[in-house]
Amino acid sequence: MGSVGKVDILLNNTVLSNFGLINRMELLRRAVEGRAGTTEEVVREFQRGVELGYLPSVSLKWLAVLRMDDDERAIFRSLRHRFGAGEASCLAIAQNRGMKLATDDRDARRYAQRLGIPVSGTIGILVDLIRRRFLTVDEANTLLGEMIERGYHSPVDDLSALV
């Protein structure tokens, strides 16, 4: 996988999948370029989705892939009863290293917020792309609509009020 600058945001499979499902991974890359990473567990989850035909085969080489240290592995084990491997690994690393987490998993977001871990997700990334003028509101709403059609349970269907 890729080698990037200082990683300060971890991408969970929910966010990767939303952009992957609409074949717009380049937009996600543009939004977090040089500062995003993910975990080995998330990469495995994403690849499993590709193997099962749920996700298109896209390159994740632009992402730094982080491995848990012993302390993070202990946190991970304590979280596995509650979360999938991807969520648990992202939470463990974000908590231990003081990183931001990008996930659309409601339970993982709530848990992170209780720990003081900054959280974003697909909606936040789309809004950021609008604010940075990579997308118009209409373009972002179209992409959001495509994600919703493919199964994203979005809390909103129009980004206009968020920018």
Summarize the structure.
Helix content is 52%, strand content 9%. The protein is of the alpha/beta class and 163 residues long.
Task: Indicate the topology.
Blueprint: E1 9-11, H1 13-21, H2 25-32, E2 36-39, H3 40-51, E3 64-66, H4 70-79, H5 85-97, E4 100-102, H6 106-115, E5 119-120, H7 122-131, H8 137-149
Parallel strand pairs: 1-2, 1-4, 2-3, 4-5
Helix pairs in contact: 2-7, 3-5, 4-5, 5-6
Principal-axes shape call = globular
Q: How many domains would you count in the coordinates?
A: 1
Q: Considering DSSP H and I runs of 4 or more, what fraction of the residues is helical? A: 40-55%
β-strand number: 5
Q: What is the CATH first-level class name?
A: Alpha Beta
Proper CATH architecture: 3-Layer(aba) Sandwich
How can the largest sheet be summarized?
A: 5 strands, parallel
State the helix count.
Answer: 8
Whole-number average pLDDT?
A: 94
Widest sheet: strand ordering: 3-2-1-4-5
CATH superfamily: 5'-nuclease
Q: Span from first to last CA? A: 33 Å
Low-confidence stretches: none
Rg value:
15 Å
H and E order:
EHHEHEHHEHEHH
Structural class: alpha/beta
CATH topology call = Rossmann fold
How large a portion of the residues is in β-strands, by DSSP E?
Answer: 5-15%
Walkthrough of the structure:
- With 163 residues, the chain is α/β, with parallel strands linked by helices.
- The chain has a single domain (9-162), classed as 5'-nuclease (Rossmann fold, 3-Layer(aba) Sandwich), CATH 3.40.50.
- The chain contains 8 helices and 5 strands.
- The protein has helices at residues 13-21, 25-32, 40-51, 70-79, 85-97, 106-115, 122-131, 137-149; strands at residues 9-11, 36-39, 64-66, 100-102, 119-120.
- A 5-stranded parallel sheet has the order 3-2-1-4-5.
- Strand 2, helix 3 and strand 3 form a beta-alpha-beta unit.
- Helix 2 crosses helix 7 (122-131), helix 3 runs antiparallel to helix 5 (85-97) and helix 4 crosses helix 5 (85-97).
- It is globular.
- The model has no long low-confidence stretch (mean pLDDT 94).
